[in-house]
Amino acid sequence: MTDHLPLNRKILSLCDYTGSWSKPYGEAGYEVIQVDLQHGQDVRTLEFIGPVHGILAAPPCTHLASSGARWWASKGPEALMEALAVADACLRAVALYNPTWWALENPTGRLSRYYGPPAFSFDPCDFGDPYTKRTHLWGKFVPPMPLWTGGDKSVYPSEGSKMHKLPPSKDRANLRSATPEGFARAFFEANP
After folding, report:
1. Within 53-169, where are the H helices?
2. pTM for the predicted model, two decimal places
């Protein structure tokens, strides 16, 4: 943790139902404002809340991630438009608040077609979680340091791509979308 915490310690956590990405900020005493449709708030209708230090945005990947590419055609263009509307609302918040730092994450998929190449990419095993799920970040932030850059080796992904192995359930999408704990901690340390 840093010795120099910002005066404005408000973090806007968009589309982060589980709160796993914003958890290190809350634990460090930041005011975390979670906005997620499953909590009853829609980022597309978010009203102005005053100055914000940082924005974490994790728009749903159901209609964007390559893992679901085989269903894109059958879902039609409406599903893509819905997904982009939510992601664009996250970027509208960035434009409105002009935070010190911000990041929008999504797994490998279609978002690069609309937002260009990501600023940073990682697998959870790069930060100590033993599985793979290639994830991209767009934004203005200090990239977190993967374990292997500090001389340590990344963790062997002994669980493989465990997201594909999750059985069908009502919680499957939320389990798949939870930010890996190791990455969340590293991101917080790089972006206090």
Report:
1. 72-97, 111-115
2. 0.82
DSSP one-letter code for 65: B
Q: How many CB atoms are located within 10 Å of the residue 130 CB?
A: 16
Of 179, 181, 174, which is closest to residue 56 (Cα–Cα)?
179
Cα distances (Å, whole numbers) of residue 153 to 134, 137, 144, 184: 17, 22, 15, 18
Q: Which residue has the tokens 């994790």?
A: 58
8 Å CB contact between 87 and 125: no
How remote is the C-alpha of 163 from its chain's centroid?
Answer: 16
Return the CA Rg of the chain.
Answer: 16
Q: Which residues of the chain have pLDDT under 50?
A: 1-2, 172, 175
> Which residues are 135's β-sheet partners?
107, 122
Sheet with 54-57, strands from edge to edge, namely 31-35, 10-14, 54-57, 101-107, 135-140, 120-122
